[in-house]
Structure formats: C-alpha cells, structure tokens
Amino acid sequence: MANTETALKEALASIEGATGAALVDYTSGMALGTIGGSKTFDLNVAAAGNTDVIRAKIRTMEHLGLKAEIEDILITLTDQYHLIRLLTGRGGNGLFLYLVLDAKRANLAMARHQLKRIEESLEV
Question: What CA–CA distance (Å, rounded) separates 63 from 110?
Fold first, then answer.
C-alpha cells in the first residue's frame, strides 16, 4: 500500500506525459498532496477548481436520477489532458486523484489504466 506522497510520485514518474498530480478532498476543495505543476500552473488552484466540476456532475446525476458512480472525468484542452479519478476504495470517499498530462506526449488510455492501478494501491 502506498501513501499519498509515494502514489503521487509514482504517477508523475510512471505515466508518460504527466506534468502534475494531486490528491484532493472535493468536499473542502483542499489538496492533500501535490507534485509537479509550474510557476504558471498552480496545482492547488486547479485542484480547488476541479472540485466544482465534480460537485456539478454529482448534482446533475442526482437530478437525472442516475445511480451509476463516476469513474473518471476527462477534460481535454488544446495542449493538455486533465484526468480526474474519484477514489472508491476504503477511506477514499470524497477524494479524487487529479492528473495533468501534456497532450503531445501522453497516451490517454495508458494514463487512465495506470491511474486506476495507483488508486488501488493508495492507502488513505
């Protein structure tokens, strides 16, 4: 089982094109851990903003009466992919992994697969 720091380091090191990763509490909007980012890309701001994305999707699903669970949310920009994966394991309720990828270098299918594997090994 990996702790937060180990899991985020693994995400950045093992996922091709990853430029930043965070573990975020979407009830508070607070990042519990971050790695990567840059002077022009603040992961804490992005993490907080993406909590609104999750809350909006959950509300919409409730209004539609959908009983399914969100696996992940993908946001594609012209030069980046933003992958949001809600944690489903023990102790993961209300948390998500957030991964920023360089679209030119990333393999999105592999990134999703590897992020799921990292989630399964994460001990919160």
Answer: 32
Q: Closest Cα to residue 92, out of 19, 32, 10?
A: 32
Dist CA 30 CA 48 (whole Å):
6
The burial class, CB within 10 Å (0-12 / 13-18 / 19+), for 70 is: middle
Task: Give the span between the Cα atoms of 106 and 17, in whole angstroms.
Answer: 4
Contact of 101 with 85, CB cutoff 8 Å = no
Kindly state the tokens that stand for 11. Answer: 């995400």
Residue-range domains of the chain with CATH: 4-121 (3.30.450.30)
In which element (H, E) is residue 105 found?
A: none
- pLDDT tens digit string along 75-123? 999 999 999 999 986 666 899 999 999 999 999 999 999 999 999 988 8
Token duo for residue 90? 């023990």
State phi, psi for 43 to the nearest 5 degrees.
-65, -35
DSSP letters, 32-45, are EEEEE-BTTB-HHH
